[in-house]
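Page header: ASSEMBLY MODEL / two components / 500 residues total.
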Amino acid sequence: MRPKLAADALLVSGMLLSLQACATPEPVAYGPIGEAVRYGYKDRPNPDGGHTILVVLPPQSPLSDARAYWDRRADELCPGGVAKRIVFRSERKEVMNPAPYTQYGAGISSRIATGYELEGYVYCKGVAPAG
Amino acid sequence: MRAFIVLPLCFVLAACATEPTPTARPLSQANIDALGATRASITGDYGGVGKSWYYTDVNGAGAGLAGLVAGLIVGAVVNAAPSHRAGRQATEIAQVVTPEELNESLAAKFKALEQAPHDHAITFSDVVVTQKLLAPGELDDTLEISTNYTLSEDSSVLRVVATATYKNAAIPYKTPYSFKKQAPASESTGPLYRNVFTYYSTPLPVPVLTPELKARLVASVQDSMRNEAGALPAEGAGEYKSMMHEIELAQDDKLTGGETSVFLTREWLKNHGAPLKQEIEKAHAFIAKYALLDINRTAIPSVEGTDELLETTSDDRTVRRLGAGPQAGSYVSSAANVVAPATYGNAVAVGKATEDYVSGLKRQAKKEK
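Prediction written out in full:
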C-alpha cells in the first residue's frame, strides 16, 4: 500500500502548510529596522529632496498595515505636511522550495512568504524637488 | 497547452557563490571609444506574453516506484486546474499579441534612437531582429536584447524584463572587481557589457468579490476544463476532481490570485488588447532609452550601493537604478501607488498560437540545415 503511504504523507504535508498559513502574526511595534529588529521602517534622504521609505512587515501582514506604517513615517519626516507620496513597490518576499525527498513518504514543493515590503518616495511641502 | 517550468537553479547558484558581484557589467570609456557606432539586434521572442502560475511539485520517490507513480498522479491532479487556467489565458493573449508584433515594436523603439556616430559615445548604427532558432549562437560586435513578457499570477501586472548583452571577440571581458583569491568563473568569461531592464505595468484594480462574480468564476473554471469537443472531464477522473476542487474554492469568500486572473486577463484583452499593447509600447520605450543611456555609462556598480531615482514621469511612474545586491546597476520602471503585491509563481504558460509559431520556425530551421 505504498501509494497510500505517499498520499498520506502528502496529506500531512498539506495540513502542516495549512496550519502555517493560519498562524496569526504578532503585531509589529512601530519603529526603525535595526540589527536586532527585523520588522519596521527604514528611510534615507535622496538627492532630489525627497526621502525613500521602506516598510518591512511579517509576510501575512495586510497592505493596510504596511501602508499605515509607511504613511506614519512619511508624516514624521514631513512635519510641515506631505506634498507627494509615490509608493512604487509592494512585494511579498517568497522562498520557493522544491519537493523534498521523504523516506517512505512524499514531499511536496512549497512557497513560503518571508516578509512583506512596501517602498516609496515622499516629498515634503515647501521642499522643491531638485533637478 | 504546454508550460515551461522555471527550475530553481538560483538556489544551486547561490550555494556556490563566494563573493557576489552585480549582474550588470558596464563598459569602460576606452571600450566605448573603441566601439562607437554599434549594431543592435532584437532577439526574436518565442514566449509571447506568458501567464505565470504556481506549479506544485510532488516527490513520492521516497516510497519507491509505487510512491513515484503516486506522486506523479497526485501532482497531475493538483496542477490540472491551475495549469489549464493559465494555458487558456495565455492562448487568449497569444491571439491578440504575437511574438512578431513584440519584436517589431521593440525594434522600432531602438530604430527611433538611431543616430549618426559621434565621438566618445556608442550609437545604434543599425537595428535588426535575429531569430536565434534560425541563426543560433551569440552575435559578435552587436548589442543583443532579449525579452520576457509575463503577466503576474493574478494578472494584475505585466512584467517585461529585457537583458542587453554585448560581446566582442577582440575585446575580452576583464573584471573590474578584486577578489581575495582567484576571480570566480562567472567573472572570468561572458559578455563585455550586460544589464537588465525591468518594467512593471500600472496594476489593474483587483475586482471585489460578489455573488455574481462567484458564479462567473465557477463558469470560467468549467470552461477552462472543457476538452476540444467542449465536454467536461468525466466524473471520477483526476481532472474532474481537480475541477470540483477549483469550483469549491471559487464558491468560498476568498479571491485567490489564480481566480482574480480570470477577470483581469480579460481586462488586458479589451479593445483587441489595447491596454496590454499600450503597456508593452511603454515598456519598449523604457528599455530602448535606458539601454542606450546605460551602454554609455562607465560607473561600476557595487553590491552595497543605494538605489538612485533617475526619472519621475507626469503620472508619477519612476525609473530607478538599483543600488544593492546582485541586481545592482539594473534599471526598474515602476508604476506609482501600487497596492496588492503581485507574484510570478514558478511556471509560465505559453499560448497555442505562440507554440505554433515557434514550431513553424523550428521546421524552417530544420529545412535550412
